[in-house]
Write a structure and sequence with these properties.
Number of strands: 0
Shape: globular
Structural class: mainly alpha
Distance between the termini: 20 Å
């Protein structure tokens, strides 16, 4: 199935040594130059444009059609990083495109899952529909925006190394260092939302443990890095210490 292919390809992409942090696959260009015009036409960036288009088609559909277009976008995410490295087309534009699209796609999936729950079109009982939808929307803010935003701020602006961001906690180490946990968690986080959107109880229930694991890993990491937020920005001489994150797929 499309979702099974997505799981396999995304797990492989996120386990690549060039992507040590969850749910991002392409490192930025640290050469110091601004964006060049030809970067707009890099194969990896064109793949990302395709992700944007398929996400647009997804949000203008629902149910299984939403899941189909969303899954196509998710599968494409497994190839942009490979294309960038294979063709020597890594760029800062591609790095930020990948990062932003990852966050937007996960937010969209959770948002439409919450809408489906509130509409009564899912297997979720009406009596708990409102709390479930609220939980999904809280995760949009807490995990996708705040936690990932804090990680990117520390990495990009303050130059904090990834292993200083919550690695003291087992759940964070497993999430970021073990490709099995990473692939399972990222796929499950999306799969749970798609299960609600498609009203597929089996998919949602199978994905629930990984969904919870990814959410807890990111929340734990957020709690761990809050004390680091007061650090002074790095100097330009430390720019080479920047690393990438997906999730991240990052989920």
């Amino acid at each position: 199935t499309i979702l099974a292919q997505a799981s396999r390809f995304v797990a492989q992409a996120h386990s690549h040594p060039a992507a040590p942090q969850a749910c991002l696959s392409r490192a930025p260009d640290d050469s110091g130059h601004g964006m060049r015009f030809q970067e707009l036409f890099y194969v990896a960036n064109i793949i990302d444009y395709g992700r944007i288009i398929t996400l647009y088609w997804a949000v203008n559909s629902d149910g299984y059609e939403f899941a189909m277009w969303y899954s196509v976008s998710y599968i494409l995410d497994a190839f942009d990083g490979y294309a960038a490295r294979a063709l020597n087309q890594e760029s800062r534009l591609g790095y930020y495109l990948d990062m932003v699209i990852d966050r937007v796609s996960s937010c969209l999936c959770l948002h439409f899952a919450a809408k489906a729950v509130l509409s009564g079109a899912t297997f979720v009982p009406v009596t708990v529909a409102a709390p479930v939808a609220l939980m999904l929307r809280i995760l949009i803010v807490l995990v996708e925006l705040v936690a990932h935003g804090a990680v990117m701020f520390l990495s990009e602006v303050l130059g904090v190394h990834q292993k200083q961001m919550g690695y003291d906690y087992w759940i964070v180490r497993q999430y970021l260092s073990d490709k099995r946990f990473l692939g399972w968690a990222c796929f499950s986080f999306e799969g749970f939302g798609l299960g609600l959107i498609m009203n597929s109880a089996p998919l949602a229930l199978i994905s629930l443990p990984g969904f919870v694991f990814r959410a807890l890993a990111n929340i734990t990491r957020l709690i761990a890095i809050v004390p680091l937020m007061g650090r002074r920005p790095r100097s330009s001489s430390n720019a080479s210490s920047r690393t990438s994150s997906r999730d991240g797929k990052s989920e």
